[in-house]
Structure formats: C-alpha cells, structure tokens
Amino acid sequence: MNKAGERLFNGLIKENPTFVLMLGMCPTLAVTTSAVNGLGMGLTTTVVLTLSNGIISLLRKVIPDKVRIPAFIVVIATFVTLVELLLEGFLPSLYDALGIYIPLIVVNCIILGRAESYASKNPIIPSLFDGLGMGLGFSVALTMIGALREILGAGEVFGYEVMPASYVPASIFVLAPGAFFVLAGLTAIQNYLKIEGEKKGKDMSKIQSGCGTDCKTCKEQCKEREEK
C-alpha cells in the first residue's frame, strides 16, 4: 500500500478518531442528533484538518519548537474562521444547527493531535492524506451515529421516512443520553467482531488497533530517526 493510501486507511479504519482513539467526543455526542448534522460537522472538520495539516507540514522547519502549539492553533483558527464564514453565508441552516461547535473546532484534539504527531514531522503530501483520512473517518463515524439516532428517535434519516407508520419513535435517542447509547452500541459491535475474528484465527490487527507503543518509546524513536 502506498503512503497516501496507507494514511487514508489509517484514518478510516485502523485509527478511526471516534471508534478507536475516542477523540473529539464533545462534537460527536453533541451535534449528532441527525445524519445531516453529523455529516456537516464531519466534513467541516475534514476541510480544516486537511488544510491545517498541509500548512503546518510546509512550515514545520520554520516554526520554532518552543512556540509550535500556539503556532498550530493560529493556523487552525484561520481555517476554522474561513469555514465558519462560508457556512454562515451559504449554508445558514447547517451553521445554526452546529452552533458553537464550529469555532470549537480550533481546540479539537483530533486536529491538534495530528498537527503535533504527524504534520509537524512529515512532508506535505502524506500530511494532506493523513488529515483527509482522519477527517473522513471522523465524518463516517458522526454520520453513522447521527443516522442511527435519527432513525430510532424520529423514524427517518436525511429527512426520509424509513420506519413503518406503526413505529413509535424512541425520543430519548435524539436527546443527550441517546448519543452515549448509540456510541456504546457501535463500539460494542466493533469489539465483538474483533474478538470473534481472533477466535477464528483471522488477522484482526487492522480493526481497533490504535497506537501500539507508549508515548515515551514513540518519542524516542522519532528522535532517533531525526538524528539519522
């Protein structure tokens, strides 16, 4: 698998920011009352993540190490502001639905985490695909959670009725507790599939593998590579 494809696969499956790394839980639980909201937040984050990864990668040799975090935040905040203004101007209904969670993308730990752990240490092309992969993984996760909550809580998805007329919506799923129930259910299914696959002798390392090393070891390895 080439470098770009590997970064896409990593974000979508191997280190999915929601189901594997459990990052960005605030927007995940707050805005996924519908599939549209989940998809909108996911794609908004994807744009910011991809562009900020690219710029930070370009500037990685210029930004002093001591001020790298403030510098990353300035870059991210610039793109968040641009995206927020575009949403307000062209998609006002989505802008109103996402509300305060759009400016909060600035401090989303997924974006800061990728800037610190990957974009600041790698060339621009892999960094762009890393941001795109993580963003798409986040989008898929939020859309799935939003769709399930909308189906169970309102009997529809993307505005289309999908449940029979006799179905009585479980309104709790479009309230705050519903987000926890759906996320827990999807994570449990993922864990079940991984365990069953391992029992059958299948290689399940690509599902919910996350990072396999501790932070100290990883940092030491990165330092050794830089010295070489």
Structure description:
With 228 residues, the chain is mainly α. The chain has one domain (3-159, 169-227). Helix content is 65%, strand content 2%. The protein is built from nine helices and two strands. The protein has helices spanning 3-14, 25-30, 35-58, 68-90, 92-98, 109-117, 124-154, 176-199, 215-227; strands at residues 156-157, 160-161. Strands 1-2 form a two-stranded antiparallel sheet. α4 (68-90) crosses α6 (109-117) and α7 (124-154) packs across α8. The longest helix is centred in the middle third of the chain and has 31 residues, at 124-154. It is globular, with a radius of gyration of 19 Å. The two termini are 25 Å apart. 35% of the residues are buried. Mean pLDDT is 87; it is low at 209-217.
Work out the strand percent. Answer: under 5%
Write down the secondary-structure element order.
HHHHHHHEEHH
Structural class: mainly alpha
How are the strands of the biggest sheet laid out side by side? 1-2
Radius of gyration (Å): 19 Å
Helix content: 55-70%
Give the beta-strand count.
Answer: 2
